[in-house]
Design brief:
The complex is a heterodimer of chains A (292) and B (295). By secondary structure, chain A is mostly helical. Chain A contains twelve helices and no strands. In chain A, helix 2 (11-51) packs across helix 12 (256-288) and helix 3 (73-113) crosses helix 6. Chain B has helices spanning 2-36, 53-59, 62-93, 100-108, 115-125, 136-143, 160-185, 189-197, 202-213, 215-230, 234-240, 249-260, 263-294. Chain B has a single domain (62-294), classed as Orthogonal Bundle (MetI-like fold), CATH 1.10.3720.10. The chains are: A mainly alpha (292), B mainly alpha (295).
Chain lengths: 292, 295
């Protein structure tokens, strides 16, 4: 009897408000996420809109509006000013990225798969170099370059980025190689393969993802570097794009539209890499936090 | 002997890197400390020992205390802001939302842009010019009818460095989000389920199960943000240039070397930066390597 009275539980009326509330919470979530996205993209809007404005439209009255007349004048000016420095940046970033990635692969391999007594100590010894403020080596470094007559200009910067890139690249590759199953290494050992054979025919063929992660990381941080460049490169003709950009925009006579197009121009290479390979970029970031 | 033949080549292969790090990290740090203790105060190098003279100079230098005040305010605002925004974003994304990939890419994209380039826009956004020369956010405030919010931004006398932290928060909160997101996803689902079975409300599940699991991630984030903040340089140069009102130790060091040619004093700042960062990093490294070994 009691069961029959209890049977018609008013299921629907109870569930409906809860579902509606859940729906509202979900909506709120999307609204907040979208708001954050808008705030984060706001500088991008400003950059693009301003960079396509003509000289007459950059006054405060039109600060946030889209250009009446889209023009690439500012872009042309920015390009004329920065193109030699963009060239310098490429001359810097390509060899530095390639060499430091290769070095990182070898170091990471040894530190995880061909270990020697004290390998962990060496790794920690490396890692500290990743976190130091580079200011703490900058004065002696420039002095040393002078003392040993190191070829001036870009080569000094390439060298510096390779050396100070050793810790992060070793970290990225070591984390990655740690996931290679021991069985695979055991098989190589059975074949009496030496270190280089093992690296070349077992480890290297499956290293592509780590190479991409390390290369993106190095490319981005070397391209965006300002500190090393501003201390090491004294000849303005050899400045990479960051230093040149700061020089252009730091002088308050440069109009906003030119400043903005110069900033976009200087950021395009890393942004393109980010858009195409963002997934790997994220992995590099996580490695930077040590616990990949 | 056979064992050496086994690991010898590995050590040999890594030894050039060990040598480079030994010389260019540890050796040059030592050299820098030596410079800071010397009397190299002009363009002409000198290595005569002068003890702590440069440090004492710094201590009595009014600019230095301004620097310290600035870096403190900047660091606190930056760390609190980036942690809060990053945690909020991760919390909202944690259970999986449609378009998660899109949101993640948007939040993280500032990491791909240099502080120098970002500084160009942020200087425009935070333009302190009054009235008809105003640009950026002050104009927005005016148009939205909240003109009283318009302010001096990074040129504000007391809170300027807090405004300076805004672009840094913008740049790094996506990174903090990624860290926290990984942390959230690392909490075993069974644990949450078990707590729910015990009748815990969703709030209590977070309070007692999920958040305690985020402690190591929070520590990592704190240390990463902290060490970025102490040595902040590009951003300040891009937005504030060399003026004292936005000066921080790394910028002052640059001015001392390039304009004043006071190498000993510059090296002293660099050494102090290193000490500040080491106090954060060394315990962290030891802790990380140790817990890795235990795993």
């Amino acid at each position: 009897m009691s069961t029959s009275t209890a049977a018609p539980i008013p299921v629907a009326p109870v569930r409906a408000p809860r579902a509606r509330r859940r729906g509202r919470v979900r909506l709120l979530k999307y609204v907040v996420l979208l708001l954050f996205a808008i705030v984060i993209l706001m500088p991008v809007y400003v950059l693009i809109v301003t960079s396509f404005k003509g000289g007459g439209e950059i006054d405060p009255a039109h600060a946030w509006s889209i250009p009446h007349l889209w023009t690439v004048d500012a872009w042309r000016q920015a390009w004329n000013g920065l193109s030699p420095n963009l060239g310098n940046s490429f001359k810097l970033v390509i060899p530095a990225t390639l060499l430091s990635t290769l070095l990182g692969s070898l170091n990471g391999f040894v530190l995880s798969k061909w270990r020697f007594p004290g390998a962990d100590f060496v790794f920690t010894f490396f890692l500290f170099g990743m976190f130091i403020p580079y200011q703490a080596v900058m004065i002696p470094l420039t002095q040393l370059f002078e003392d040993v007559n190191f070829p001036a200009g870009i080569p000094r910067l390439v060298f510096a980025h390779i050396v100070y890139g050793i810790p992060i690249t070793a970290l990225i590759f070591r984390n990655y190689y740690a996931t290679i199953p021991e069985d695979l290494m055991e098989a190589a050992r059975m074949d009496r393969a030496g270190m280089f054979r093992t690296y070349w025919s077992v480890v290297l063929p499956i290293s592509a993802p780590a190479f991409v992660v390390a290369a993106i990381w190095q490319f981005t941080s070397i391209w965006n570097d300002f500190l090393f460049a501003v201390f090491i490169i004294t000849d303005p003709a050899k400045w990479p794009v960051t230093v040149a950009l700061n020089n252009v925009t730091g002088s308050f006579v440069t109009p906003y539209n030119v400043q903005m197009s110069a900033a976009v121009l200087a950021s395009l290479p890393t942004l393109i890499v980010y858009v195409l390979l963002g997934r790997y970029f994220m992995r590099g970031l996580m490695a930077g936090a040590l616990k990949g | 002997m056979r064992r050496i033949r086994r690991w010898g080549p590995g050590l040999l292969l890594v030894s050039p890197s060990i040598l480079l790090i030994a010389v260019f990290v540890y050796g040059l740090i030592g050299w820098n400390i030596k410079v800071s203790l010397s009397d190299w105060r002009t363009a002409v190098p000198s290595s005569k020992y002068k003890g702590l003279a440069a440090y004492r100079d710094l201590q009595s230098d009014p600019a230095w205390s301004v620097n310290l005040h600035h870096i403190l305010l900047f660091t606190v605002t930056f760390i609190v802001g980036a942690l809060l925004v990053g945690l909020t974003l991760a919390f909202l994304l944690e259970k999986g939302v449609r378009g998660e990939g899109f949101f993640r890419s948007v939040y993280l994209f500032p990491m791909a842009v240099s502080f120098i380039a970002a500084g160009v826009v942020w200087r425009w956004l935070m333009n302190p010019a009054p009235g008809n020369r105003a640009t950026g956010l002050n104009v927005v405030f005016d148009k939205l009818g909240v003109g009283f919010l318009a302010n001096q931004w990074y040129l504000g006398q007391d809170w300027g460095m807090a405004a300076m932290a805004l672009p840094a928060i913008w740049a790094l909160s996506g990174y903090v989000m990624a860290l926290f997101l990984a942390g959230f996803r690392g909490v075993p689902e069974e644990l949450r389920e078990a707590a729910r079975m015990d009748g815990a409300s969703e709030f209590r599940v977070y309070r007692h199960v999920v958040f305690p699991h985020l402690r190591p991630v929070t520590l990592s984030a704190l240390i990463i943000l902290g060490h970025i903040s102490i040595k902040v340089f590009d951003l300040i140069v891009a937005i504030g240039g060399k003026q004292l009102i936005t000066q921080v130790p790394a910028v002052y060091m640059w001015i001392l070397i390039y304009d004043a040619r006071d190498y000993a004093k510059g090296a002293a700042i660099a050494t102090l930066l290193l000490i500040g960062i080491s106090a954060l990093i060394i315990p962290y490294l030891v802790y990380t390597v140790r817990s890795e070994r235990r795993a």
